[in-house]
Structure formats: structure tokens, C-alpha cells
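note to self — DONT lose this again. spent like an hour looking for the file last time. sequence + predicted structure for the chain T wanted, 80 res
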Amino acid sequence: MARTKKAEYVSKATTTLIKASSRASIKISESYYTVEYCEERSIPEDCDIEKERTFLWDTVNGEVDSQIEEILQAYGNKRK
């Protein structure tokens, strides 16, 4: 009896929303500070999803970097 190969399922879903979260911790003297930023974006059908993801990651990572920089400035860059 011959076996027939099942056709592989092909996804028909489309991305309509992307969400990214970035978090970082820093130790200053004996204290730890953790900052986090999350953002989600609605995605139109006619966009380049890979570029949109890159832009979103750049935004959330940049926001966390800015928060860390503010903490460092507030404590005079006294990292140990």
C-alpha cells in the first residue's frame, strides 16, 4: 500500500501588531537599578515587516539606554 504525502500547511496569518520590550540592570555602589521599556505598534499591510521590527528594537533599546544614562548622570557615574 503506497503512502501519500500530506501537503504541508502554509500559514495564512498576517502580522498586524508588533511588540518589543527591553530591560537592563545596572549596579551603582551597593544598589541595583533595573529599567524597562515596552512599546507596541500597529502594522499596516503594505509595510516591510523586517524594517519595522528593526525600527521598533532600535526605539525600545534606545529608550532603555537613555534611562541608564540618566541614572548614571544622577549618581555621578559612580559605578563599582
